[in-house]
Structure formats: structure tokens, C-alpha cells
Write a structure and sequence with these properties.
The protein is mainly beta. The chain contains no helices and 22 strands. The chain has a ten-stranded antiparallel sheet with strand order 9-10-11-12-22-19-18-14-16-15, with no helix packed on it. A hairpin with a 4-residue loop joins strand 3 and strand 4. This is Galactose mutarotase-like enzyme.
Length: 299
């Protein structure tokens, strides 16, 4: 089943729970299509263009615990550990947790409520697992040219929840390949680094901008330090210069870390939110995106 949100400016497609069945990304509110109706511009692309490759990501899909899987270290081989937004995963062996590895999943139950054509609510109940339990609600809505994803997490268990959440924004404007026609902007000077220097090949950095000298023929990846999102009018902006079409994230939360990943068809800015919940504690945060198009002559 595909859910659709629509107003006068945006059309959003959201996969039904279970359409994605991997052990990495949140199954609820999995946004697979975004269309800016003025000009019919599209933004969402798959993680990989090759069938069967990658981990199944597409469009705007978030993940909890890419670095800190809840309860994994205390889980024995064959036992379960919780992955927020997904389900109870089975530990396979003595290896460290790997976010890209395929773990057996016992999915959580998710309730879906549509409120007209502009809002949808996903309520996921985390089954108790050795003291870990979180009630998670995700609300997706549209207002003018803005798409908002609101999160509410309530620790209903007896143990502290310590993890992180981010959205893997798989973006490619109108299917145009990544290259000199794109610019990725940040509202501050950049100090990027990468564990492998070759992942920076072909990128240039200056005046808060990232540019590509050619269409990448291999993955690129770099990281940025965290920053206070409330200090800036937006966190990042991706612009396709020939068409004047772009998207920016204008969220207002503390960014604990940031990264950018991509290939020749996709750019994925990733802003991380650190989630710490004591038993009984509840926290909310949201991600807000603006989609726009303007005359290329003013770029």
C-alpha cells in the first residue's frame, strides 16, 4: 500500500509499513516520492540503481542506532535486541554490530492514521526486550512548500535509551546526475574530514559550498562536526543550478554530527540527533524540508 499527502504545492508518496523489510531503516513513514508541483520537479532516488545492491534505502528514510545499537553488547548470539522503528533483531555471532548487515527481524506493530490529505501518523510500539521499550510516533505533514517529519519517543522501559537518529536523504533532483550542475550549501565554513581520503576525490570546498568537478564514478563521503541548528536559518541546501530547483533542511535541533554520502546519481546530507531517554522520559524533535524552484538567471 502507498500513502499519499498532497496540497497545492507538494505531492508526497509514503510506503506502507512492511514495503521495506530490511533491518536498517525505520519501516514507518518511509518517504519514497516528493514532487514539487510547480514544474513537476522530483527529488527522491534509490540508494542504488542496481537491483539487489545496497541496503534498500530510498528517498527520505531515517535510521536509529547506526553507531549505537540498543542493548547489542549485552545480547548473546541467538538472542534479540531492539532496533527502533524496525523490530527485534537477532544477534548472529560475536562480531560487532554492523548497520549494513542483514539481521533477522521480528517487526514491531505499527498503527497508521490519516488526517485528511495533509497529515499521516505512524505509531510504533516497541516490544519490551530485557528492560528496553520505547513508544515511537512519527507524524508526516505538508504545509505550502514544506514537508515536516515530527518524532516523539517515550521510554516505557526500565533501562536508559542511548542512541542516535538521522535521516538518510537520498536526493537527486529530476534524476539529474551529480556533478558540476549541483552545489551543496551550508550556512557556515566547512571543515570536512574522511577516514579514507579517496572518498573526497573530485570534491571542492569553499565559502560553505561543496561542488563536484565531474560526475562521480565511485562513492564519496565526508563528515562534519556537530553544530547548533537553531543558530542558522537552514542546515543545508542542495541546488540544481540549471533548473534553479532545490531543497533545504530548516530543522531546529542540536546536530551531534553531520555527514554527506553519495554516488553519481545521489547526494545524501545526514544530520544526526542524539537521543538520550531515562525511564519514563519523553522527547520530541522534527525535521523540516523546503522545496523550491526559481529562475536560473538569479543564481
Amino acid at each position: 500500500m502507498v500513502y499519499q499527502l498532497k496540497n497545492e504545492q507538494l505531492e508526497i508518496e509514503i510506503a506502507g509499513a512492511g514495503a521495506y523489510r530490511g533491518s536498517r531503516f525505520d519501516w514507518s513513514g518511509f518517504i519514497t516520492g516528493i514532487t514539487l508541483l510547480e514544474g513537476r520537479h522530483s527529488f527522491c532516488v534509490p540508494e542504488s540503481l542496481v537491483p539487489g545492491q545496497g541496503t534498500g534505502g530510498a528517498g527520505l528514510c531515517n535510521e536509529f542506532g547506526i553507531l549505537r545499537a540498543i542493548g547489542y553488547e549485552e545480547t548473546r548470539t541467538g538472542e534479540s535486541f531492539p532496533k527502533l522503528g524496525v523490530g527485534l533483531l537477532t544477534r548472529l555471532d560475536d562480531r560487532k554490530y554492523e548497520f549494513s548487515r542483514d539481521y533477522p527481524v521480528q517487526p514491531f506493530e505499527t498503527e497508521v492514521e490519516m488526517e485528511g490529505t495533509r497529515k499521516i501518523i505512524f505509531r510504533t510500539i516497541l516490544e519490551e526486550c530485557r528492560g528496553y521499550a520505547v513508544s515511537l510516533t512519527k507524524t508526516v505533514s505538508v504545509d505550502e512548500n514544506r514537508l515536516t517529519v515530527e518524532y516523539a519517543a517515550h521510554n516505557t522501559g526500565t533501562k536508559v535509551i542511548a542512541t542516535e537518529e538521522y535521516c538518510h536523504n537520498f536526493l537527486g533532483i529530476d534524476g539529474n546526475p551529480v556533478g558540476p550542475d549541483y552545489v551543496l550549501k551550508f550556512p557556515f565554513e566547512l571543515s570536512p574530514w574522511a577516514d579514507e581520503e579517496e572518498t573526497l576525490r573530485g570534491l571542492t570546498f569553499g565559502q560553505g559550498e561543496v561542488r563536484w568537478g565531474h560526475i562521480p564514478d565511485r562513492p564519496f563521503y565526508f563528515r562534519l562536526p556537530g553544530f547548533e541548528g537553531e543558530r542558522y536559518p537552514w542546515m543545508w541546501e542542495l541546488l540544481h543550478r540549471p533548473s534553479g530547483t532545490g531543497v533545504r533542511e530548516i530543522s531546529r535541533f542540536p546536530v551531534s554530527a553531520a555527514a554527506v554520502w553519495g554516488l553519481g546519481h545521489v547526494v545524501a546530507p545526514e544530520m544526526f540527533y542524539e537521543l538520550q531517554l531515562a525511564p519514563g522520559e519523553r522527547k520530541t524533535w522534527s525535521r523540516v524540508y523546503e522545496f523550491f524552484t526559481k529562475s536560473p538567471s538569479i543564481l
